[in-house]
Structure formats: structure tokens, C-alpha cells
């Protein structure tokens, strides 16, 4: 099956080998694409606070990607496991963004939740696209 939709959203995906840098760039593009669509839908059809929450969630998701990048940069130098402090830092970023957005309204909190969960959706999408080593002639 050809992945035309995937290539339309991520044109650089097939040009390079899947290095850590290419995966991080693809995940940043995916977060921006998903959250910009969610922002437009939420801002115009639901409520303005929902759109503001999506912006806060986008900022939190991009900060989490930055923490992932720093962690992998450190782990590539020497073989080590994921530290508990990096895990705590990633999820405290989510908690801080959602805690601040909860002070405004419940719509802002929901928007922030959907904005931060977009990182998980992008990772699921990437793992689906890269199954079987990312071969183009995948029978599925």
C-alpha cells in the first residue's frame, strides 16, 4: 500500500534515512499539523478558550519533544537507560500546562489536554508508518 496521505503531510519522510533527527523533525511537523487543525476547528466552532488551550497544549508538546531530543542526545553519547528525572520532567510539563489552563476554564483544560495528547497520536502514526522497517511495498 502506498502511503500518499502520509507523504503529503510529511514530504521529508522518504528523503532521508530514519535517524533520530529525522524522527524528531517529523514529530514536530506532526504536532504542528494536528494542533493547527484542532485549533481552527475548536476556535471557530466550539469556543475561544478551547483554542487557547490547544495553543498551551501545543507549547507543552513541543517542550516535551525538546526534552526527548536532549535525552536522546545524552543517551547516544553513552549507553544508559532513561532516567527517572527525565520521565518526571516530561510529565510535570504536562501537569503544569494543564494546571495553568484549568485556572481559566474547563474548555481551556480540554483544549490543553487534546494539544498535549497530539504527541502520542504522532508517535502512534509514526510507529504505524515504520512497521516492517518502513518498507514502501508493505502488503498491509
What does this entry look like structurally?
By secondary structure, the protein is an all-alpha fold. It has one domain. Helices cover 76% and strands 0% of the residues. The chain is built from five helices and no strands. It has helices at residues 4-9, 20-46, 48-77, 84-102, 106-129. Helix 3 crosses helix 5. The longest helix is centred in the middle third of the chain and has 30 residues, at 48-77. The model has no long low-confidence stretch (mean pLDDT 76).
Name the helix and strand elements from N-terminus to C-terminus, one letter apiece.
HHHHH
Proportion of residues in helical segments: over 70%
What oligomeric assembly is this protein in? single chain
The overall number of domains is: 1
Mean pLDDT: 76
Number of helical runs?
Answer: 5
Class from helix and strand fractions: mainly alpha
Tertiary shape: flat
How far from one another are the termini?
Answer: 6 Å
* Biggest pleated-sheet summary: none
Number of strands: 0
Computed over alpha carbons, the radius of gyration is 17 Å
Low-confidence stretches: none
Beta-strand residue fraction:
under 5%
Amino acid at each position: 500500500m502506498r502511503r500518499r496521505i502520509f507523504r503529503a503531510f510529511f514530504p521529508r519522510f522518504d528523503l532521508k534515512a530514519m535517524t533520530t533527527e529525522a524522527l524528531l523533525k517529523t514529530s514536530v511537523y506532526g504536532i504542528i499539523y494536528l494542533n493547527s487543525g484542532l485549533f481552527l476547528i475548536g476556535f471557530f466552532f466550539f469556543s475561544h478558550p478551547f483554542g487557547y488551550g490547544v495553543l498551551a497544549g501545543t507549547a507543552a508538546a513541543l517542550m516535551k519533544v525538546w526534552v526527548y531530543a536532549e535525552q536522546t542526545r545524552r543517551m547516544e553519547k553513552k549507553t544508559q537507560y532513561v532516567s527517572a528525572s527525565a520521565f518526571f520532567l516530561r510529565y510535570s510539563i504536562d501537569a503544569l500546562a494543564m494546571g495553568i489552563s484549568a485556572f481559566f476554564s474547563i474548555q481551556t483544560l480540554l483544549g490543553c489536554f487534546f494539544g498535549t495528547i497530539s504527541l502520542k497520536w504522532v508517535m502512534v502514526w509514526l510507529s504505524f508508518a515504520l512497521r516492517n522497517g518502513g518498507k514502501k511495498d508493505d502488503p498491509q
